[in-house]
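During the reporting period the student researcher (J.K.) took over the structure-prediction task from the postdoctoral fellow and processed the backlog of single-chain submissions. One of the processed entries is reproduced below for the supervisory committee.
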Amino acid sequence: MINKSRGLSLLLGAASLWLSACSQFTDRLLSDNDGVPKQMLARQVLVTLPDRLKPQWSAIKSELAHRHAIEETGEFPLSAIGVDCLVYKIPEHQPFADTIEKLKADKRIGLVQENQVFEGIQGGESDEMAALSYGPQLTHSDRAHRLATGKGVKIAVIDTGAEKNHPDLKDRIVESANFVEGGDRSFTRDRHGTAVTGVIAARANDGIGIYGIAPEADIAVYKACWYPESQHAKAQCSSWTLAKALDAAINQRAKVINLSLAGPDDKLMKQLLETAHARGITVIAAALEKAPNPGFPADSSLAIPVISADPDGKTAAPVWLKRYPQTVAAPGVDILTTIPKEGYDFVSGSSLATAHVSGIVALLLELNPQLSPDQIKDYLHKNGRAEATDLSVLDICAIIKRIGKSDEC
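J.K. obtained the following structure tokens:
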């Protein structure tokens, strides 16, 4: 059954895409209204303390608050990178940038940054007469399922929540966690995470709905993004929530991290992505297709940037494409996938293309668990060819043949 509700068409993107307007945009989004999770409030700063100072963490936390006249609003350890992260709110009457510079001067502190905001970018409605579930065919994942289904490969979907008991997702989500204050209540009603998860791992051969690119992968859904008002509003994430979700993904030994989001350069997230890369975790990130640059983390060497293709394999050519040659393309226009309340709908955006790539990477890792993130990036970039040529939709069978695993895909 296809739910006839409005198409999702979300790409979790940058709240501060235009960097010159970063602080103004953030303040406008994150007012202290009732119902706004504490992780999304304005004028918050993140401060990290190194593990070597662990006996002093509590004393330092209180001392910094008193010395700089700032309010303690949160604290969370990031064991993957060995730090404690303190969260303070800088009062309205106090210069924000000046306070940050004073904190940076403290030699005990490892990192100081604004709690940045990542926001959903919503497109128009999709055509419900589009070809049904063409992604597996266009990427040849349907043929690759004779060799691999993603079994034993853990994919962390860092996004909104997802409907865990959807008929096509039941028993496919082996782990879930919420990192947004109050987010548990809406976890299973969240559209974007449900749609992304369906593309990756919807159940196969069950006689209903659709099937995913990696239908037997182990999916962990980490909710780091939140809908402020309604399911048609733009989803918001923050440095705070995303850092906690990345830390969980690393510690729980995910092999692939799906980040269908983009935003401003973020030092704390970059540290976590460096650790993920060092531990052999492949990071797939959605790119902003109509912006001057792909956004972070897609513009980082630590991630594989993804843009969307239509059913004919045609892609939009972002103005930045030549500057990021390792960008890959996957189906992302009019994708039929899962939505809450046991429904299905057509959705579009590079967030869905990213989900296709995460599934493809899971298939490759099942066939060769020793592949490193750099090797995977190179194979995807060359797309089964000896050398990289033009950008075309990923062909999993060509890549499998290239790595010498089978000629039978």
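The committee noted the following: The first strand starts at residue 10 and ends at 14.
J.K. will present the remaining backlog at the next meeting.
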